[in-house]
Write a structure and sequence with these properties.
The chain has a single domain, classed as Alpha-Beta Plaits (2-Layer Sandwich). The chain is about 35% helix and about 35% strand. It is built from 4 helices and 4 strands. The protein has a 4-stranded antiparallel beta sheet with strand order 2-3-1-4.
């Protein structure tokens, strides 16, 4: 396999999923159970109606950091979700619980 841009082009031609991963902590005083319920609200809400949506998972590590894995079929469908989420009340609630100064995100093209 090639390097750099050549590798990315090969991956794009064969891609079946576009992923965002995020790692973050909650704002001070947030209760885990409330955050989980807010996450369920997002999962069961508007995101499920978005073209190309595959899945959205949350996990918690032993240090108290949260991990989110979100998958769409192609990058443009994920991009459209990023525009739509600003109008989703469930996402507003969910987002209000996150300490965005602790967040790191990465994007991947998955190969199967």
């Amino acid at each position: 396999m090639g390097h750099g841009n050549e590798t990315i082009e090969i991956l794009k031609r064969n891609a079946v999923e576009y992923l965002e991963t995020a790692k973050f902590r909650l704002n001070e005083g947030m209760i885990t159970e409330q955050f989980i319920e807010a996450g369920k609200g997002v999962r069961n809400g508007l995101i499920g109606t978005q073209p190309g949506f595959i899945s959205r998972e949350l996990g918690l590590d032993e240090t108290g950091s949260w991990f989110m894995d979100m998958r769409f079929d192609i990058k443009s469908n994920m991009g459209n979700w990023f525009l739509t989420l600003k109008q989703d009340p469930a996402m507003k609630t969910f987002g209000s619980m996150i300490d965005f100064s602790t967040m790191t995100t990465d994007f991947f093209i998955r190969q199967i």
